[in-house]
Amino acid sequence: MPDPVRPADDDARAMGQSLMASARFAALGVLLDDGSPLVTRVAFGLDPQGGPVSLISGLALHTAALRQRPACSLLVGEPGNKGDPLAHPRLSLMCQACFVSRQDPQHEVLAAHYLRRQPKAKLYLQLADFTFVRFAVTGAHLNGGFGKAFRLAKADLQPPGSIG
């Protein structure tokens, strides 16, 4: 049987980029200390270069897990109001988490950019335990609906004209 997952084409790239650009939250998958999987919802945005980013609390279980094991996954794409939820597109990102210190000069640039899409995050930025985490994409799988499965690389998800 041939591999049902196809290499990226222009339509798959555009769909993956669109799913990332429109997402305001994502499901984050991590591994806990004991090896158990955990999936949680996190805020989601893109940094100025078009890479995935979130603002997360240092008190959260998933934050401790990411600090121990930075390998993680994100799922973006929500079902529409009608039809089979599995027929709607979604993008799974395989990533490595990288925390941005509040002392890093890029923190303020990232905060200003992030707040344009997530204005309610201003409250969280005032709390000392919240920090940004960038997700370095190592690969992705796009399920564009029934019979539309694609394997994407980091470069496939970069918006046109971005430096990544």
Walk me through the structure:
23% of the residues lie in helices and 37% in strands. The longest helix is centred in the N-terminal third of the chain and has 13 residues. The mean pLDDT is 93. With 164 residues, it is α+β, with helices and mostly antiparallel strands. Strand 2 and strand 3 form a beta hairpin. The chain contains 4 helices and 9 strands, in the order E-H-E-E-E-E-H-E-E-H-H-E-E. Strands 1, 2, 3, 4, 5, 6, 7, 8 and 9 form a 9-stranded mixed β-sheet that branches.
The dominant shape is globular
Radius of gyration: 16 Å
Give the proportion of residues in helices: 10-25%
Number of separate helices: 4
Largest pleated sheet: 9 strands, mixed
How many DSSP-defined strands?
9
Rounded to the nearest angstrom, the distance between the terminal CA atoms is 36 Å
Order of helices and strands: EHEEEEHEEHHEE
Structural class: alpha+beta
Task: Bin the strand percentage.
Answer: 35-45%
Average pLDDT across residues? Answer: 93
Flag low-confidence runs.
Answer: none
Keywords:
4 helices; 164 residues; 23% helix; alpha+beta; nine-stranded mixed beta sheet
Topology:
Layout lengths: L4 E3 L2 H13 L2 E7 L5 E7 L1 E2 L5 E6 L3 H8 L2 E6 L13 E11 L5 H12 L4 H4 L4 E14 L5 E4 L12
